[in-house]
Every structure is written in structure tokens, then in C-alpha cells.
Write a structure and sequence with these properties.
Layout lengths: L3 H7 L6 E6 L9 H12 E3 L3 E7 L6 H6 L2 E7 L9 E5 H7 L8 H13 L6 E7 L12 H20 L4 E3 L14
Parallel strand pairs: 1-3, 1-4, 4-6
Antiparallel strand pairs: 2-7, 5-6
Helix pairs in contact: 2-6, 4-5
């Protein structure tokens, strides 16, 4: 006789894909992730299992989101090779192991949250960071021209990762998603 527990073990896992933008929109290019997640939500419609979340500067408060995701794409400003506006892609596992890549006030908390999820064996196997090298980090709103110009490509790459993992992502037809306003303050 099947018990509720044995039935639960045989049911396929529930997909919970997460696209999360991170950063402080009051600190120049550090607000990239917050603007990127807003652009993603305007440009794309995804299957109901996908959540697009503004993680702000949540740090360790984001641990539950990270551990519940089956697929994870993070959008953030990052230290990386190249001039401002360069797009950098890293697996979240690599980011958790190496540290020192993220910027600003959420830096310590998010990298620790990723490391903790990895240590607990609960970091999604499909997890990527799509980041952009910042041009300026100072008090003020809006993105530098180089980072604003990179925003549409970074958002496209986030959608491409989801598609590679079998998540249904459809572009909103031009005009319906206000596509022309990405990267503006």
C-alpha cells in the first residue's frame, strides 16, 4: 500500500526557476541588477514556474529563495575583466567558491548565502550569474552609458540561460513590453 510519503517520493520535483536582480539603485551602476530584472519582466513572459525577483541588497535574507530554486539566474554588477559594460558570466557555484566578485553593500551577504547554499548541498545545479562590469559606483541614480548599453544584451543572456535549461521564455512583442526604455533611470 502506498503511503503519502512514498507517493511524494515518486512525484517529479516541482520546477521553481528564479531570475533575480541585485544591487542598490541609489548607487550608480550598482543598480544594474535592479534595472535588469525590471527590463526582463517587461521583455519576457515565462512559464508560471518562473519568478522574476528584485533582490535589492538582501544578502543572507535571499538564502531561502536561492535554496528553493531549481534554476537560478542572478543579474548584478561585478568585478571582472574588461572595461565598463563588459558582460561577465559565472556559474553561481564558481562565484560561491571564489568570492570577491560582487560589489557594494550586498556583496558579503549574497556571496555568503551562495556559499552556505553550496555547503548545504542546496545551491541549484543550474545557477548562473550574468553580470556587468560597472563604470561608476557613487551616490546617484541611473546607469553609466556603457552599463546602460550592455543591459539589453545581459537580459537576453539571462533569458538564453533559462531556455538552455528547458524553461519556456517568450519575448513580448515590440511595443507591449516598452523595450526601448531599458537602462534608463
Amino acid at each position: 500500500m502506498a503511503t503519502p510519503a512514498s507517493r511524494a517520493r515518486r512525484e517529479p520535483p516541482v520546477r521553481r526557476a528564479l531570475v533575480m536582480g541585485l544591487g542598490n539603485p541609489l548607487y550608480g551602476d550598482d543598480g544594474f541588477g535592479v534595472q535588469a530584472i525590471a527590463a526582463f519582466a517587461r521583455r519576457f513572459r515565462c512559464e508560471p514556474s518562473v519568478a522574476a525577483v528584485d533582490g535589492g541588497t538582501g544578502g543572507l535574507d535571499l538564502l531561502a529563495y536561492l535554496e528553493e530554486a531549481s534554476e537560478l539566474v542572478l543579474l548584478d554588477a561585478v568585478r571582472g575583466p574588461g572595461p565598463p559594460g563588459t558582460i561577465v558570466e559565472l556559474s553561481a557555484g564558481e562565484l560561491a567558491r571564489r568570492g570577491g566578485t560582487l560589489l557594494s553593500q550586498h556583496q558579503v551577504g549574497l556571496e555568503e548565502a551562495l556559499g552556505l547554499a553550496l555547503w548545504r548541498g542546496r545551491l541549484p545545479a543550474r545557477a548562473m550569474l550574468v553580470g556587468v562590469v560597472p563604470g561608476w559606483l557613487q551616490l546617484g541614480t541611473g546607469l553609466s552609458p556603457a552599463v546602460a548599453a550592455a543591459l539589453p544584451e545581459a537580459v537576453d543572456r539571462a533569458a538564453a540561460w533559462l531556455r538552455r535549461w528547458g524553461v519556456q521564455v517568450m519575448e513580448v512583442p515590440m511595443g507591449e513590453g516598452d523595450r526601448g526604455n531599458e537602462g534608463s533611470a
